[in-house]
Amino acid sequence: MHLSTDIWVWIAAILTLCIFSFLYKDNPFYKFAEHLLVGVSAGYFFVIYFWNLIVPNLLTPLKNGFGTLFTGGGFTGDLAALVPGILGLIILTRLIPKIAWMSRWAIGFYFGAFQGIVITGYMQAYILAQIYGTFIKANNPVFSLALMGDFFGAPGWGKALLAVSGPLMILGVVCTLTYFFFSTEHKGFVGGVAKVGIVFLMIGFGASFGYTVMARVSLLIGRLQFLLRDWLGIIS
Amino acid sequence: MNLYEKFLHIDRRYIFILVALGVIIPLIWPLGLAVTTSPPVENVYNAVEELPPGTPVLLSVDYDPSTQPELSPMTVAVLRHCFSRDLPVIITVLHPGGPGLALEISDRISKEMGAVYGEDYVFLGYKVGSSAVILSIGQNFRVSFPADYFNTPIDEIPLMKDIQNYDDVGLAITMSGSTFPEIWVAYAHERYGQRIAAGVTAVMAADYYPFLQTGQMVGLIGGLKGAAEYEKLINRPDDGLKGMDAQTIVHLFVVLMILLGNIAFIFVQRAKRREA
Amino acid sequence: MRRELPLAICFIMGIIMTVQFFIPHYYSQWLFDNMLKWLIIVLTFAMILGIGNLVKIHFQKIQHRRRDWLYSIVALFGVAASLVTGFGWGIEADSPFMVLYNYIQIPMQATMFSLLAFYIASAAFRTFRARTVEATLLLVAAVVVMLGRVPLESIVGRWLPDFAEWILDYPNMAAKRGIMIGIGLGAISTALKIILGIERSWLGGGD
Fold first, then answer.
1. Which domain holds residue A195?
2. How far is C55 from chain A (nearest CA, A)?
3. Residue C111 in contact with residue A20, Cβ under 8 Å?
4. Contact assessment for residue B229 and residue B221, using Cβ atoms and an 8 Å cutoff
5. With an 8 Å Cβ cutoff, are C125 and B135 in contact?
6. What ipTM is given for this predicted complex?
7. Does C206 have pLDDT greater than 70?
8. H helices of chain A, where?
9. Topology, domain B39-242
10. From the list C44, C121, C173, which residue is nearest B210 (CB)?
11. Dihedral (Cα; C117, C119, C121, C122), 10-degree rounding
12. Which sign, positive or negative, has the C-alpha torsion B11, B12, B13, B17?
């Protein structure tokens, strides 16, 4: 066991244990660590926004633009950054209740733009490509008669699975979509199809739950690796 | 309250202790369980492996410290792979919590692999507005990234001299703990035909299989297991592989608790029916 | 005009960004480039707004001595420490700002989320019951994926990870695709409603 001699590792380890103390019950150590995290994070974001965004994308072009203007070079495209700069300042009026209504102009600007981008992007990626992929994979049909022929020609479990998987996938997509179609009552044939959709959804959610357990455990492994390796030096 | 009911109402802090021990013990005394690779991870590895040396790779570090234990191991493995194959790496960040992580990893791995800043890799920093940034790269990197993270104008960086947009990038890999991979697919792949691979947390991994099937993603690295598989493929064991034993033990423990919980529940229900 | 002008701006921007996708002309692309540049700058201020709000809330808590106001001092101290180090010494890899990030923010934020491992184990034990056929299916799929995605092949053989991979590739993928198509349709209809001014909740309350 080789305890770390780095003061910052000790600070990180103590703060880690303060957060872990919540597992026993809420306590002042946890609250202290939580509020410190909130504060440091907020300050961190502000600094990053300033150095990574405001300086290169706004201040530098404005400095260049005004520099050229005042040295007789005339107007350049850099000065166009004034428009989003002013819109950005208008957003900050949201903090002043009397003139908060002005921020709607800037919000309308970026909100409308992003919704416009969403329409074409999502139509292609989420709808058209997914519908295409349901029936065609790598230029071959998903519902493959050739694979079925292979199975009947020389039956085996592996070939059966291959032959059935494609049609099963198409069935799953159609049934799941039927489950989410609420304009028709889920009775009779539609009800039956929706029930099959539920089966696929349960398998999907089960797979997601299994992966979620894996994700959370991985996060814990990472933190305990830090404590055992970097702080206590028990593992290499 | 009979034994089964007592078991079902056990103080959860005992479960917490057992989970902690399930992680600590295998970390201290590894079991050495062998990891095998899966096609989604192999596809990412092959996509990088097939790029001719000198082909730029865009690596987007789109996660924050909350998912760092899962995603940093895979980011490190991919970066090592790229440097070992002489593939220049352009690092961007679309998550505000990511710049520090990207900076630390790129700094550490570049020193380890002898990669030179400005020639073998460049860190362009963070920009807000994911879809806008991804679309703008398709026009020209300079639209969103006029300078790098250190505020050096992009045109003064040797690596970026001949790189304009996605046409000059062989593969874009996003490491993300949220919905950034979908946005990369929707805008970079669908609009500009850019090949996309993703490293995601295990929580997200199951949701991205439709993109794998359509070929919208070339491959997917999912969770710490995915990181372990990639480390095995590049033959460089690190945090991913080291964590697999602990992962196995805790998974077995959770499955056991689910089974025991259901068995106890059945006995409790039977007892209640008998009483009724 | 306090509500009509923003709606009009939203409509115009939405139409521009939708229609430009179909117009490869030079001026359409020039407009697109500049709109993207502007969006990034405007959004930056929107993010800063969130931080400003947080600081305002903590100041008010201290001012009015509300419950746990002492912790608000800790929060504001954290903000100040980040700002002073970030603006004073820059954001390079070995700067004091990055030291705060690497040894305070990363450990605490990562640990906060790692607590979920304990809670998910406890929740799985207490609530995961095979009461119905659907719940049993969910449970079986979860167990197969949990065991198939860890290195147990040397003990139980390849059938388990192969079965887990098959579940992910086919039934899981089918379900997620159905959900994805639904999400796509929902997102597009919401986008249209916002652009056309049918959905106005983003304007907020008041005049």
1. 163-231
2. 8
3. yes
4. yes
5. no
6. 0.90
7. no
8. 7-20, 28-49, 60-70, 82-91, 103-122, 129-135, 145-153, 157-179, 188-225
9. Rossmann fold (3.40.50)
10. C173
11. 160
12. positive
Average pLDDT on B196-202 reads 97
**What is the four-CA torsion angle of B43, B48, B49, B54, rounded to 10 degrees?**
160
The whole-model pTM stands at 0.91
User: Cα(B60)–Cα(B91) distance, rounded to whole angstroms?
Assistant: 6
Whether C12 is covered by a domain: the verdict is yes
All residues of chain B having their beta carbon less than 8 Å from the beta carbon of residue A207 are: 206
Range of the domain at C33: 1-66
Q: Which two tokens stand for residue C25?
A: 């002309």
Residue type, A44: Y
Is A22 a member of any domain? no
Q: Which residues pair with A137 in a beta bridge?
A: A140
Does residue C96 lie in a domain region?
no
> Which residues of chain C are within 8 Å of residue A168 when distances are taken between CB atoms?
170-171, 174
Tens digit of pLDDT for each residue in B3-56? 888 888 889 999 999 999 999 999 999 998 999 999 999 999 999 999 999 999
The residues in C 97-126 lying below 8 A from B, measured between CB atoms, are 98, 101-102, 105-106, 109-110, 112-114, 117-118, 120-122, 124-126
State the residue for tokens 């998974």. Answer: B251
Tell me how far apart the 2 most distant CA atoms of chain C are, in Å.
71
Q: For residue B107, what are its two tokens? A: 């700094």
Instruction: Output the pLDDT for position C164.
Output: 93
Q: What is the 3-state secondary structure (H, E, C) of B85-123?
A: CCCCEEEEECCCCCHHHHHHHHHHHHHHHCCCECCCEEE
Which residues in chain A come in under a pLDDT of 50? Answer: none
Whether residue A172 lies inside any domain: the answer is: yes
Reported as a single tens digit per residue, the pLDDT across C2-27 is 889 999 999 999 999 999 989 988 88
Q: Pick from A38, A57, A221, A228 the residue to mutate for testing the B interface (most B CBs within 10 Å).
A: A221
Question: Considering its fold, how many domains does chain C have in total?
Answer: 1
Here the tokens at position A90 are 């208008």
Per-residue model confidence (pLDDT) at position C187: 94
- Both tokens of residue C58? 């903590």
The per-residue pLDDT for B1 is 59
pLDDT tens digits, one per residue of B105-151: 999 999 999 999 999 999 999 999 899 999 999 999 999 999 999 99
